[in-house]
Amino acid sequence: MTQNQAKLSRRGLIAILAVAVLSFIGILTETSLNVAFPTIMKQFDVKLATVQWLTTGYLLMVSLLMIVSAFLNKRFKTRSIFITAVSFFMLGSIIAAVAPTFGIILLGRIISAAGTGLCIPLMFNVIVETVPVHQIGYYMGIAGMVLSMAPAFGPTFGGVMVYFLSWRMIFWIVVPFAIIALIFGMASLEQHHDLSHPDFDWVRYCLLAVAFVSLSLGFNSVSTAGWLGKAFLGSVVLAAIMLWFFIRISKTTTKMLLNINVFKSKTFVSSLIAYFFLQFANIGMSFVLPTYVQIVNHQSALIGGLILLPGSFIASAATPLFGKMLDDKGAKLPILLGNSIFAAGLIGFVFGGKILPIGLIIIFYLIFTFGRSMVLGNTMTFGLTGVSNELRADANASFTTAQQFAGSIGTTILASIISISQNSGQSLPQYQLTAIGSRYAFATLLVLALINFGLYHQAFKKNERDN
Length: 467
Description:
The chain is built from 19 helices and no strands. The chain is mainly alpha-helical. The longest helix is centred in the last third of the chain and has 37 residues, at 430-466. It is globular and about 65 Å long.
Protein backbone atom coordinates (compact mmCIF):
# COMPACT_ATOMS: atom_id res chain seq x y z
CA MET A 1 0.00 0.00 0.00
CA THR A 2 1.39 3.40 -0.98
CA GLN A 3 1.66 6.31 1.39
CA ASN A 4 -1.33 8.03 -0.22
CA GLN A 5 -3.44 4.86 0.09
CA ALA A 6 -2.60 4.31 3.77
CA LYS A 7 -5.47 4.89 6.16
CA LEU A 8 -5.59 5.82 9.81
CA SER A 9 -6.15 2.68 11.87
CA ARG A 10 -9.11 2.37 14.22
CA ARG A 11 -6.72 2.23 17.15
CA GLY A 12 -4.99 5.39 15.99
CA LEU A 13 -8.35 7.16 15.60
CA ILE A 14 -9.39 6.16 19.13
CA ALA A 15 -6.06 7.43 20.48
CA ILE A 16 -6.57 10.80 18.79
CA LEU A 17 -10.14 11.04 20.08
CA ALA A 18 -9.04 10.21 23.63
CA VAL A 19 -6.40 12.94 23.68
CA ALA A 20 -8.71 15.38 21.89
CA VAL A 21 -11.50 14.85 24.45
CA LEU A 22 -9.17 15.62 27.34
CA SER A 23 -7.78 18.66 25.51
CA PHE A 24 -11.31 19.89 24.78
CA ILE A 25 -12.61 19.65 28.35
CA GLY A 26 -9.34 21.12 29.63
CA ILE A 27 -9.68 24.17 27.38
CA LEU A 28 -13.45 24.32 28.02
CA THR A 29 -12.82 24.92 31.71
CA GLU A 30 -10.38 27.76 30.90
CA THR A 31 -13.22 30.16 30.20
CA SER A 32 -16.33 28.42 31.60
CA LEU A 33 -15.70 29.67 35.13
CA ASN A 34 -15.62 33.32 33.98
CA VAL A 35 -19.42 33.37 34.03
CA ALA A 36 -19.43 32.29 37.68
CA PHE A 37 -17.10 35.08 38.85
CA PRO A 38 -19.86 37.35 40.25
CA THR A 39 -21.32 34.38 42.16
CA ILE A 40 -17.92 33.30 43.52
CA MET A 41 -17.08 36.91 44.46
CA LYS A 42 -20.19 37.06 46.65
CA GLN A 43 -19.80 33.57 48.10
CA PHE A 44 -16.16 33.95 49.13
CA ASP A 45 -16.11 37.76 49.56
CA VAL A 46 -13.31 38.42 47.05
CA LYS A 47 -12.86 41.23 44.55
CA LEU A 48 -12.70 41.05 40.77
CA ALA A 49 -8.91 41.50 40.75
CA THR A 50 -8.67 38.41 42.97
CA VAL A 51 -11.26 36.12 41.41
CA GLN A 52 -9.77 36.58 37.92
CA TRP A 53 -6.77 34.54 39.08
CA LEU A 54 -8.94 31.45 38.60
CA THR A 55 -8.48 32.06 34.86
CA THR A 56 -5.12 33.84 34.92
CA GLY A 57 -3.46 31.19 37.10
CA TYR A 58 -4.91 28.41 34.94
CA LEU A 59 -3.62 29.88 31.69
CA LEU A 60 -0.27 30.74 33.24
CA MET A 61 0.29 27.13 34.33
CA VAL A 62 -0.75 25.83 30.90
CA SER A 63 1.70 28.15 29.15
CA LEU A 64 4.57 27.19 31.47
CA LEU A 65 4.07 23.48 30.77
CA MET A 66 3.76 23.97 27.03
CA ILE A 67 7.32 25.29 26.99
CA VAL A 68 8.64 21.88 28.09
CA SER A 69 6.39 19.80 25.82
CA ALA A 70 9.11 19.00 23.25
CA PHE A 71 11.45 17.77 25.99
CA LEU A 72 8.76 15.63 27.63
CA ASN A 73 7.87 14.07 24.28
CA LYS A 74 11.46 12.95 23.77
CA ARG A 75 12.05 11.86 27.36
CA PHE A 76 8.83 10.06 28.39
CA LYS A 77 6.42 7.58 26.81
CA THR A 78 3.30 8.96 25.18
CA ARG A 79 1.03 6.84 27.36
CA SER A 80 2.82 7.95 30.53
CA ILE A 81 2.40 11.64 29.63
CA PHE A 82 -1.29 11.08 28.90
CA ILE A 83 -1.96 9.22 32.16
CA THR A 84 -0.16 11.97 34.08
CA ALA A 85 -2.20 14.62 32.28
CA VAL A 86 -5.52 12.91 33.08
CA SER A 87 -4.48 12.40 36.71
CA PHE A 88 -3.60 16.06 37.19
CA PHE A 89 -6.78 17.22 35.48
CA MET A 90 -9.11 14.99 37.50
CA LEU A 91 -7.37 15.68 40.80
CA GLY A 92 -7.48 19.43 40.26
CA SER A 93 -11.12 19.35 39.14
CA ILE A 94 -12.20 17.39 42.22
CA ILE A 95 -10.27 19.70 44.56
CA ALA A 96 -11.91 22.76 42.98
CA ALA A 97 -15.35 21.13 43.10
CA VAL A 98 -15.24 20.51 46.87
CA ALA A 99 -13.14 23.57 47.82
CA PRO A 100 -14.32 25.28 51.04
CA THR A 101 -12.27 28.44 50.40
CA PHE A 102 -11.19 30.53 47.43
CA GLY A 103 -7.53 29.54 47.91
CA ILE A 104 -8.40 25.85 47.55
CA ILE A 105 -10.35 26.54 44.35
CA LEU A 106 -7.29 28.30 42.94
CA LEU A 107 -5.07 25.36 43.96
CA GLY A 108 -7.40 22.95 42.18
CA ARG A 109 -7.41 25.11 39.07
CA ILE A 110 -3.62 25.20 38.90
CA ILE A 111 -3.35 21.43 39.34
CA SER A 112 -5.94 20.73 36.63
CA ALA A 113 -4.18 23.25 34.36
CA ALA A 114 -1.06 21.07 34.57
CA GLY A 115 -3.07 18.30 32.90
CA THR A 116 -4.26 20.61 30.14
CA GLY A 117 -0.75 21.95 29.56
CA LEU A 118 0.54 18.41 29.08
CA CYS A 119 -2.32 17.22 26.88
CA ILE A 120 -2.66 19.97 24.25
CA PRO A 121 0.86 19.52 22.77
CA LEU A 122 0.42 15.75 23.10
CA MET A 123 -2.68 15.94 20.88
CA PHE A 124 -0.63 17.42 18.02
CA ASN A 125 2.22 14.94 18.57
CA VAL A 126 -0.17 11.96 18.42
CA ILE A 127 -1.71 13.26 15.18
CA VAL A 128 1.67 13.77 13.52
CA GLU A 129 2.86 10.30 14.55
CA THR A 130 -0.27 8.24 13.78
CA VAL A 131 -1.97 9.91 10.82
CA PRO A 132 -0.84 9.16 7.23
CA VAL A 133 0.82 12.13 5.54
CA HIS A 134 -2.03 12.81 3.12
CA GLN A 135 -4.54 13.09 6.02
CA ILE A 136 -2.49 15.19 8.44
CA GLY A 137 -3.94 18.50 7.24
CA TYR A 138 -7.48 17.28 7.91
CA TYR A 139 -6.77 16.05 11.44
CA MET A 140 -4.63 19.05 12.30
CA GLY A 141 -7.61 21.16 11.23
CA ILE A 142 -9.81 19.22 13.64
CA ALA A 143 -7.26 19.81 16.40
CA GLY A 144 -7.33 23.50 15.57
CA MET A 145 -11.11 23.52 15.89
CA VAL A 146 -10.79 21.93 19.32
CA LEU A 147 -8.53 24.79 20.38
CA SER A 148 -10.89 27.45 19.02
CA MET A 149 -14.29 25.97 19.86
CA ALA A 150 -13.65 24.92 23.46
CA PRO A 151 -12.86 28.39 24.86
CA ALA A 152 -15.60 29.89 22.69
CA PHE A 153 -18.28 27.64 24.17
CA GLY A 154 -16.83 27.75 27.69
CA PRO A 155 -18.88 30.75 28.90
CA THR A 156 -22.13 29.19 27.60
CA PHE A 157 -21.36 25.89 29.31
CA GLY A 158 -20.48 27.72 32.51
CA GLY A 159 -23.63 29.85 32.36
CA VAL A 160 -25.87 26.79 32.01
CA MET A 161 -24.15 25.06 34.93
CA VAL A 162 -24.34 28.10 37.23
CA TYR A 163 -27.96 28.94 36.38
CA PHE A 164 -29.48 25.46 36.58
CA LEU A 165 -27.11 23.68 38.99
CA SER A 166 -24.03 25.22 40.64
CA TRP A 167 -20.63 26.57 39.65
CA ARG A 168 -19.15 23.47 41.30
CA MET A 169 -20.80 21.31 38.63
CA ILE A 170 -18.46 22.90 36.07
CA PHE A 171 -15.77 20.71 37.64
CA TRP A 172 -17.83 17.64 38.49
CA ILE A 173 -19.34 17.21 35.04
CA VAL A 174 -15.97 17.01 33.23
CA VAL A 175 -14.57 14.25 35.49
CA PRO A 176 -16.55 11.37 33.86
CA PHE A 177 -15.36 12.53 30.42
CA ALA A 178 -11.77 12.52 31.69
CA ILE A 179 -12.25 8.95 32.97
CA ILE A 180 -13.64 7.84 29.60
CA ALA A 181 -10.69 9.49 27.83
CA LEU A 182 -8.30 7.71 30.21
CA ILE A 183 -9.81 4.28 29.53
CA PHE A 184 -9.71 4.65 25.76
CA GLY A 185 -6.33 6.34 25.80
CA MET A 186 -4.69 3.56 27.83
CA ALA A 187 -6.12 0.99 25.43
CA SER A 188 -5.09 2.74 22.22
CA LEU A 189 -2.03 4.95 22.69
CA GLU A 190 1.17 3.50 21.25
CA GLN A 191 4.79 4.57 21.24
CA HIS A 192 5.81 5.65 17.75
CA HIS A 193 9.21 7.20 18.44
CA ASP A 194 12.33 6.21 20.33
CA LEU A 195 12.99 7.86 23.65
CA SER A 196 16.16 9.79 24.41
CA HIS A 197 17.67 11.61 27.36
CA PRO A 198 18.35 15.17 26.18
CA ASP A 199 19.81 17.69 28.59
CA PHE A 200 16.98 20.01 29.57
CA ASP A 201 17.87 23.63 30.25
CA TRP A 202 16.34 24.10 33.68
CA VAL A 203 18.12 27.41 34.17
CA ARG A 204 16.53 29.03 31.13
CA TYR A 205 13.16 27.46 31.97
CA CYS A 206 13.23 28.93 35.47
CA LEU A 207 14.17 32.34 34.05
CA LEU A 208 11.16 32.24 31.72
CA ALA A 209 8.87 31.02 34.51
CA VAL A 210 9.93 33.84 36.82
CA ALA A 211 9.42 36.38 34.01
CA PHE A 212 5.92 35.08 33.23
CA VAL A 213 4.82 34.95 36.87
CA SER A 214 6.37 38.34 37.61
CA LEU A 215 4.49 40.02 34.77
CA SER A 216 1.21 38.41 35.80
CA LEU A 217 1.61 39.53 39.43
CA GLY A 218 2.67 42.99 38.31
CA PHE A 219 -0.33 43.58 36.08
CA ASN A 220 -2.61 42.24 38.80
CA SER A 221 -1.22 44.84 41.22
CA VAL A 222 -2.27 47.72 38.95
CA SER A 223 -5.86 47.66 40.25
CA THR A 224 -4.68 48.62 43.74
CA ALA A 225 -1.25 50.26 43.33
CA GLY A 226 -1.65 51.86 39.90
CA TRP A 227 0.52 51.78 36.76
CA LEU A 228 3.31 53.71 38.49
CA GLY A 229 3.20 51.63 41.66
CA LYS A 230 6.34 49.95 42.93
CA ALA A 231 4.77 46.51 42.58
CA PHE A 232 4.09 46.92 38.87
CA LEU A 233 7.32 48.68 37.96
CA GLY A 234 9.34 46.23 40.04
CA SER A 235 7.71 43.23 38.35
CA VAL A 236 8.44 44.66 34.88
CA VAL A 237 12.07 45.28 35.80
CA LEU A 238 12.42 41.77 37.24
CA ALA A 239 10.85 40.22 34.13
CA ALA A 240 13.17 42.26 31.88
CA ILE A 241 16.22 41.09 33.84
CA MET A 242 15.10 37.45 33.63
CA LEU A 243 14.56 37.73 29.87
CA TRP A 244 17.96 39.40 29.42
CA PHE A 245 19.67 36.49 31.19
CA PHE A 246 17.55 34.05 29.15
CA ILE A 247 18.73 35.58 25.86
CA ARG A 248 22.33 35.79 27.02
CA ILE A 249 22.45 32.12 28.05
CA SER A 250 20.54 31.03 24.92
CA LYS A 251 23.37 32.29 22.69
CA THR A 252 25.82 29.73 24.05
CA THR A 253 23.84 26.81 25.52
CA THR A 254 23.35 23.48 23.79
CA LYS A 255 20.71 22.24 26.24
CA MET A 256 17.14 21.73 25.07
CA LEU A 257 14.41 24.32 25.49
CA LEU A 258 13.87 26.98 22.80
CA ASN A 259 16.10 28.00 19.91
CA ILE A 260 16.03 31.81 19.93
CA ASN A 261 17.25 31.91 16.32
CA VAL A 262 13.58 31.65 15.40
CA PHE A 263 13.20 35.29 16.49
CA LYS A 264 15.61 36.48 13.78
CA SER A 265 12.73 36.32 11.30
CA LYS A 266 10.84 39.63 11.21
CA THR A 267 7.88 37.95 9.53
CA PHE A 268 7.65 35.45 12.37
CA VAL A 269 8.12 38.03 15.15
CA SER A 270 5.54 40.46 13.77
CA SER A 271 3.05 37.63 13.28
CA LEU A 272 3.71 36.29 16.78
CA ILE A 273 3.08 39.68 18.41
CA ALA A 274 -0.13 40.15 16.40
CA TYR A 275 -1.22 36.62 17.35
CA PHE A 276 -0.53 37.45 21.01
CA PHE A 277 -2.74 40.56 20.81
CA LEU A 278 -5.55 38.60 19.11
CA GLN A 279 -5.58 35.93 21.81
CA PHE A 280 -5.22 38.62 24.47
CA ALA A 281 -8.47 40.12 23.17
CA ASN A 282 -10.19 36.76 22.66
CA ILE A 283 -9.80 35.42 26.20
CA GLY A 284 -10.06 38.89 27.70
CA MET A 285 -13.49 39.46 26.10
CA SER A 286 -14.73 36.07 27.29
CA PHE A 287 -13.97 37.37 30.80
CA VAL A 288 -15.29 40.94 30.42
CA LEU A 289 -18.62 40.36 28.67
CA PRO A 290 -20.19 37.76 31.01
CA THR A 291 -19.17 39.93 33.97
CA TYR A 292 -20.53 43.06 32.25
CA VAL A 293 -23.89 41.46 31.49
CA GLN A 294 -24.37 40.27 35.06
CA ILE A 295 -23.22 43.43 36.87
CA VAL A 296 -24.22 46.19 34.42
CA ASN A 297 -27.29 44.66 32.76
CA HIS A 298 -28.38 42.78 35.92
CA GLN A 299 -28.83 39.53 34.00
CA SER A 300 -28.33 35.95 35.15
CA ALA A 301 -25.22 33.82 34.67
CA LEU A 302 -27.14 31.90 32.00
CA ILE A 303 -27.61 35.04 29.89
CA GLY A 304 -23.97 35.98 30.61
CA GLY A 305 -22.88 32.78 28.92
CA LEU A 306 -25.46 32.64 26.14
CA ILE A 307 -24.62 36.09 24.73
CA LEU A 308 -21.36 34.68 23.38
CA LEU A 309 -22.93 31.60 21.79
CA PRO A 310 -24.15 33.00 18.41
CA GLY A 311 -20.82 34.65 17.61
CA SER A 312 -18.78 31.70 18.86
CA PHE A 313 -20.80 29.16 16.86
CA ILE A 314 -20.74 31.08 13.58
CA ALA A 315 -17.05 31.97 13.84
CA SER A 316 -16.03 28.39 14.71
CA ALA A 317 -18.08 26.93 11.87
CA ALA A 318 -16.47 29.33 9.41
CA THR A 319 -12.89 28.61 10.50
CA PRO A 320 -12.17 26.01 7.75
CA LEU A 321 -13.38 28.51 5.13
CA PHE A 322 -10.94 31.12 6.42
CA GLY A 323 -8.08 28.66 5.99
CA LYS A 324 -9.22 27.89 2.45
CA MET A 325 -9.32 31.63 1.75
CA LEU A 326 -5.62 31.79 2.58
CA ASP A 327 -4.91 28.82 0.31
CA ASP A 328 -6.83 30.36 -2.60
CA LYS A 329 -6.15 34.10 -2.21
CA GLY A 330 -2.94 34.28 -0.19
CA ALA A 331 -2.44 35.53 3.35
CA LYS A 332 -2.93 39.28 2.88
CA LEU A 333 -6.67 39.27 2.06
CA PRO A 334 -7.99 37.15 4.98
CA ILE A 335 -5.58 38.69 7.49
CA LEU A 336 -6.23 42.35 6.67
CA LEU A 337 -9.96 41.79 6.12
CA GLY A 338 -10.24 39.78 9.33
CA ASN A 339 -8.39 42.37 11.38
CA SER A 340 -10.64 45.10 9.93
CA ILE A 341 -13.79 43.21 10.95
CA PHE A 342 -12.22 42.48 14.35
CA ALA A 343 -11.53 46.21 14.85
CA ALA A 344 -15.05 47.12 13.67
CA GLY A 345 -16.56 44.98 16.41
CA LEU A 346 -14.40 46.73 19.02
CA ILE A 347 -15.40 50.16 17.65
CA GLY A 348 -19.00 49.11 18.30
CA PHE A 349 -18.20 48.20 21.92
CA VAL A 350 -16.35 51.48 22.52
CA PHE A 351 -18.85 53.85 20.90
CA GLY A 352 -22.09 51.86 21.21
CA GLY A 353 -23.22 53.71 24.33
CA LYS A 354 -22.53 54.11 28.03
CA ILE A 355 -24.69 51.07 28.84
CA LEU A 356 -24.76 48.45 26.09
CA PRO A 357 -28.06 46.55 25.71
CA ILE A 358 -27.96 42.78 25.32
CA GLY A 359 -28.87 42.89 21.63
CA LEU A 360 -25.97 45.18 20.72
CA ILE A 361 -23.53 43.10 22.78
CA ILE A 362 -24.52 39.98 20.81
CA ILE A 363 -24.13 41.78 17.46
CA PHE A 364 -20.84 43.46 18.31
CA TYR A 365 -19.40 40.22 19.70
CA LEU A 366 -20.46 38.33 16.56
CA ILE A 367 -18.57 40.88 14.41
CA PHE A 368 -15.60 40.84 16.80
CA THR A 369 -15.22 37.07 16.99
CA PHE A 370 -15.93 36.54 13.26
CA GLY A 371 -13.02 38.83 12.39
CA ARG A 372 -10.81 37.37 15.09
CA SER A 373 -11.48 33.85 13.84
CA MET A 374 -10.65 34.87 10.25
CA VAL A 375 -7.29 36.33 11.23
CA LEU A 376 -6.07 34.18 14.15
CA GLY A 377 -5.25 30.86 12.49
CA ASN A 378 -4.08 32.53 9.30
CA THR A 379 -1.69 34.73 11.29
CA MET A 380 -0.03 31.62 12.71
CA THR A 381 0.09 29.92 9.30
CA PHE A 382 1.64 33.00 7.70
CA GLY A 383 4.12 33.45 10.56
CA LEU A 384 5.38 29.90 10.16
CA THR A 385 6.30 30.60 6.53
CA GLY A 386 8.96 32.99 7.79
CA VAL A 387 11.07 30.28 9.48
CA SER A 388 13.09 27.37 8.15
CA ASN A 389 11.97 23.76 8.58
CA GLU A 390 14.55 23.09 11.30
CA LEU A 391 13.10 25.94 13.38
CA ARG A 392 9.45 25.05 12.74
CA ALA A 393 9.06 23.16 16.04
CA ASP A 394 10.41 26.14 18.00
CA ALA A 395 8.05 28.46 16.09
CA ASN A 396 5.08 26.20 16.88
CA ALA A 397 6.05 26.11 20.55
CA SER A 398 6.29 29.90 20.57
CA PHE A 399 2.79 30.30 19.11
CA THR A 400 1.14 27.79 21.47
CA THR A 401 2.87 29.26 24.52
CA ALA A 402 1.97 32.80 23.44
CA GLN A 403 -1.65 31.72 22.97
CA GLN A 404 -2.01 30.63 26.59
CA PHE A 405 0.10 33.38 28.16
CA ALA A 406 -1.76 36.04 26.18
CA GLY A 407 -5.03 34.80 27.65
CA SER A 408 -3.52 34.94 31.13
CA ILE A 409 -2.21 38.48 30.73
CA GLY A 410 -5.34 39.62 28.88
CA THR A 411 -7.59 38.55 31.74
CA THR A 412 -5.31 40.17 34.30
CA ILE A 413 -4.96 43.53 32.53
CA LEU A 414 -8.63 43.91 31.64
CA ALA A 415 -9.65 42.92 35.18
CA SER A 416 -7.25 45.55 36.53
CA ILE A 417 -8.68 48.24 34.22
CA ILE A 418 -12.24 47.49 35.36
CA SER A 419 -11.19 47.22 39.01
CA ILE A 420 -9.52 50.67 38.87
CA SER A 421 -12.87 52.11 37.78
CA GLN A 422 -14.78 50.16 40.44
CA ASN A 423 -12.39 51.40 43.16
CA SER A 424 -12.16 54.99 41.87
CA GLY A 425 -14.24 56.37 44.73
CA GLN A 426 -16.71 58.12 42.43
CA SER A 427 -20.21 58.53 43.86
CA LEU A 428 -21.77 56.29 41.25
CA PRO A 429 -23.49 52.91 41.51
CA GLN A 430 -21.23 49.87 41.09
CA TYR A 431 -22.87 48.90 37.82
CA GLN A 432 -22.06 52.30 36.28
CA LEU A 433 -18.44 52.14 37.46
CA THR A 434 -18.17 48.65 35.94
CA ALA A 435 -19.61 49.97 32.65
CA ILE A 436 -17.06 52.80 32.58
CA GLY A 437 -14.18 50.43 33.32
CA SER A 438 -15.38 47.99 30.67
CA ARG A 439 -15.44 50.78 28.09
CA TYR A 440 -11.78 51.52 28.88
CA ALA A 441 -11.08 47.80 28.48
CA PHE A 442 -12.76 47.78 25.06
CA ALA A 443 -10.74 50.85 24.04
CA THR A 444 -7.52 49.08 25.07
CA LEU A 445 -8.35 46.16 22.79
CA LEU A 446 -9.17 48.53 19.94
CA VAL A 447 -5.71 50.09 20.26
CA LEU A 448 -4.16 46.60 19.99
CA ALA A 449 -6.22 45.89 16.86
CA LEU A 450 -4.90 49.09 15.27
CA ILE A 451 -1.32 48.20 16.23
CA ASN A 452 -1.83 44.87 14.46
CA PHE A 453 -2.26 46.70 11.14
CA GLY A 454 1.27 48.05 11.55
CA LEU A 455 2.61 44.62 12.50
CA TYR A 456 1.00 42.99 9.46
CA HIS A 457 2.37 45.72 7.19
CA GLN A 458 5.87 44.92 8.48
CA ALA A 459 5.36 41.17 8.09
CA PHE A 460 4.02 41.36 4.53
CA LYS A 461 6.71 43.82 3.47
CA LYS A 462 9.48 41.58 4.81
CA ASN A 463 7.91 38.47 3.31
CA GLU A 464 7.66 40.09 -0.14
CA ARG A 465 11.34 41.10 0.03
CA ASP A 466 12.41 37.57 0.94
CA ASN A 467 10.39 36.08 -1.93
